[in-house]
Specification:
mainly alpha, globular, binds beta-D-glucopyranose
């Protein structure tokens, strides 16, 4: 028993070799989970052109093929909280790395559509869980002064994952190897995640929540190496608050109802402006716009992927300087213009609208990546009080994946039923609603402490005078 206990403590807490690890290194290892989220969702776009031939897909089966991963992600987003608390953050990430790896290999050898869909659902479980487990891990391991930046790194990793998936799709399309290696390649990143997490520590907060204060102290001491007593006191305070919590019912009290509306509203609008019709279907859209070959359509998509990454890097610099609201308001306005433009371009489709389509898409993705892309995930982690933060973030994440599913599973049918122009104009209308929602309801949290944000809801949406 004593031996078992010692072995367990050794695996979870910081060992001597881990002590020299910087928090940037640890956050980067965990962010590989974000990279996989991006890669495994983005990879379908280019692969779809080849899957269509292999499995003789029509519009409906294409939508199912794209959306299977989202069904898994919806379930994964619900399971994430429980797994994360029961196993710990580190072991959950190790488990997810295994699922990502096995899923990637099995997907690549799928003999038929049903097998393929089951594999995509399994990979989706890991994606949905990683979407919230990674930010929780990073935020609990990071010193508060760099927490915001490190958490936003995760969204950067998501966009890098998407861009890399486009380039990998392009390389295999060029090489004539089709879709199997596109999916198999994800295993490289997931193996690195697994090996990297083996040498990363468990978070002090989870260790403390299991009563393992000595281990928690050791991790803070040697990984963060600063403000040890303050950090431990904060953890103690938030854990004692958790004990008094009233649970999910608290969201329905007048003061927290608004916080939930903001979290879920941002989640839904992030998807209802149609982002993933671009991320998942861009090559399909480009083909309709006159990019004849699969390679040229995927190449145009790759450009979109790179713009997404660059704009997210810009957002990292802007989010704490200009604030969240101005990004949301300007981003949604520009998205509306780009979507109206896309609709107009498709309404006058002469078969040679590739250049204009690409331009509109670049403007659109730029606007999304400096606004709803990073700001939703950031705010879902900061607007809820400590005692309901995990639950609030997970409800918002669930709303996000469900809306994503709804849009992705209906996109091609919508285009078939009402045409591409009207579909893009519908997304533009959602953009207008997203603007009004952000303008009326979303508070500016730039420079506010988490406690100030908590009091903002308690004071019926008024900031403390001193804040
Ligand atoms: C969204 C994803 C989207 C990605 C695009 C994320 O914030 O949640 O659905 O594919 O941004 O960069």
């Amino acid at each position: 028993m004593a031996f078992q206990e010692r072995k367990r403590r050794h695996a979870d807490a910081a060992t001597h070799s881990q002590r020299s690890l910087s928090v940037y290194f640890i956050a980067s290892v965990a962010a590989i989970g974000g990279l996989l989220f991006g890669y495994d969702t983005g990879v379908i776009s280019g692969a779809l052109l080849f899957l269509k031939q292999s499995f003789a897909l029509n519009a409906t089966t294409q939508e199912i093929t794209v959306s299977a991963v989202l069904v898994g992600a919806i379930v994964g987003s619900i399971l994430a909280g429980r797994l994360n608390d029961a196993l710990g953050r580190k072991k959950t990430l190790l488990l997810l790395a295994v699922i990502f790896t096995v899923g990637a290999i099995l997907t690549a050898i799928s003999p038929n559509l049903v097998f393929f869909l089951v594999c995509r659902i399994i990979v989706g479980l890991a994606i949905g869980a990683a979407a919230s487990v990674v930010p929780v891990y990073i935020s609990e391991i990071a010193p508060s002064r760099v927490r915001g930046t490190l958490v936003t790194f995760n969204q950067l990793a998501v966009t890098v994952g998407i861009a890399v998936s486009y380039w990998v799709d392009l390389a295999f399309a060029h090489a004539g190897l089709g879709w199997p290696p596109m999916f198999a390649s994800a295993a490289i990143a997931s193996i690195v995640l697994f090996l990297g997490m083996l040498i990363c520590p468990e978070t002090p907060r989870w260790l403390a929540s299991k009563g393992r204060w000595d281990d928690a102290r050791e991790v803070i001491e040697h990984i963060k190496g600063e403000q040890l007593e303050q950090e431990l006191a904060d953890i103690r305070h938030s854990l004692s608050e958790q004990r008094q919590q009233t649970g999910v019912r608290e969201f329905f009290t007048p003061r927290l109802r608004m916080a939930l509306i903001v979290g879920v509203g941002l989640a839904v609008f992030q998807q209802f402006v149609g982002i993933n019709t671009v991320i998942y279907y861009a090559p399909t859209i480009f083909q309709q716009a006159g990019f004849a070959s699969a390679s040229s359509a995927i190449l145009a998509t790759s450009v979109v992927g790179v713009v997404n990454v660059i704009a997210t890097i810009i957002a990292i610099f802007l989010v704490d300087r200009l604030g969240r609201r101005i990004l949301l308001l300007s981003g949604s306005s520009i998205m509306v213009i780009a979507l109206v433009m896309l609709g107009v371009v498709f309404a006058h489709n002469s078969g040679h609208i590739g250049g204009l389509t690409l331009t509109a898409m670049i403007i659109y993705i730029l606007a999304f990546a400096i606004s709803f892309g990073p700001v939703f995930w950031l705010m879902s982690a900061e607007i809820f009080p400590t005692r309901v933060r995990a639950a609030g973030a997970s409800i918002s994440s669930f709303a996000n994946w469900s809306s994503n599913f709804l849009v992705s599973v209906t996109f091609l049918s919508l285009v078939g039923a009402v045409g591409a122009p009207v579909t893009f104009w519908l997304f533009a209308c959602m953009g207008v609603l997203a603007f009004i929602f952000s303008w009326k309801l979303v508070p500016e949290t730039k420079g506010k402490s988490l406690e100030q944000i908590e009091r903002y809801w308690e004071n019926r949406r008024h900031w403390d005078k001193a804040a």
